[in-house]
Amino acid sequence: MKRYLWIFAVLPFLWSCIAEDRSACPQPRGVSVRMSVCPDPMTAVTHAADEEAIRDLNLYLLDADRNVVLHRYQSSPTLRFECLPGDYLLRIAANMGRDTGDSPAWENLAVTHADDYDTLPMAYEGEVSIPSSDETVTLPTVEVQRVVAKVTYNISVAPDAGDIRLHSVQPVNLPARAQVFDPGLRAAEYTAGEIVGSSSQTLTGTFYMLPNLQGEVPSIADQRDKGPANAPADATFLRIRALRGSKVLDYCVYPGGNNTSNFDIRANTHYTLDITIRGDAEVDTRIRAYTVEVQCTPEAALSNGFLLERQPMRLTLRLGGHYEEAGVEAFVELKTGDVRYFGFEGQWGAVARTMEIRGPENDYDIRYWPPSFTREECRFMFRVHILDRYGEVASFGFPYCYAHLLRVYTKWFDGSNGKGTVASPDALRVVEDMTLSSWYSLIYCPDEGCTLVATPDADRLFEGWCRNADHTGVLSYEEQYRFSPDDDPAVIYAYFR
């Protein structure tokens, strides 16, 4: 990851005048210097940043007292300037995107972290000697190095852990700022990179970061111990979030000079992490896990998923493992329904409510009490969202529907012999069921009611909808009948013969 600077100096003969002794010559003559910038080719580019481009240059020549005697800024890769022959400290800052000034405070000449770079910042610092000559002087090639490091990760789940699903990956503890000419200086502030989502078993990506030299921890001999418990507090790591059933898994993988004890991320270096997730055993110090379970229990049992009356429900959130360390939070949100009828812990009329986490097991009162069970108002659905300090982990949806239940018999003991069927094209749902002596349909209707349709078998007749099993209390002799929950019984007998 280098750039080459070809420096050409055109130096007319200046006797013995040098930069350190200008007073010896009353009228020193300047030297014309030409410098060209040439990048070395890279074999692969796996990120949107142009790793080869040099868009602008800031060049500084410093004398023995470290005073700036020359500064040039331009976008062209070829620089021309005049200077006296002598020994200098050469500093070059490339792709800064601005003129950094004639006499910068070097500690303020810095690069800040970015999730994306159009071009990569580069720098060079070294001694250069410009001799006296009446011919063009070509200086040695200068290699301009990138100020950032490049990290590539290839994450996969092992076949024997196939129930693990990747959720996201995020680089953590990235230096927020680095000095261009002292990139190894410890950062005063750290940040986190972008969260990259996934829902599969493989994830590949690349990011750039400023150098982060955190040194050695000699006591780490096994890579399974290269985890948060043993790593320096500010060491850079990849937080890989995965889900396994009700478990939320965080794998912390630390790049560095080796797989065990080193935590240095150096500028102008490409790190490649090939990571295979083999399980969730927490004896591996790189793994942190916690569990999340959410369930909702109506006060009365559901009938094939339907609520038959307004009733409170108990929403339960269970947490285990390192949930406090992860900073778990939760909130409930009404997704379908009228917010006026939605209540949580005695508070009504809000789309979303925070769920206070009081410990490993938490119960909440939740209600949806519409004034009627019309088609417009009978359905509702809410979701519970689980978050931690790294973002949303999971969400759990709970759809419900209020309905009136009608039971229609087509066969029963000492009655109709079931020579026909009953349907309802506009019901919320129809469920066929039977016992040893009867066949019947469970028909779930809204307040508006629903249409019942009787269809006799071939060579059979339909003889009416009745209130009673003994063929009395006839509601209608027509094969099609409009059922009203307010006016009709909850059990009807359909006679066929």
Automatic annotation (TrEMBL):
Protein name per Swiss-Prot or TrEMBL: DUF4906 domain-containing protein
Domain DUF4906 per the UniProt entry, residue ranges: 204-275
Superkingdom per UniProt: Bacteria
A Pfam family the protein falls into: DUF4906
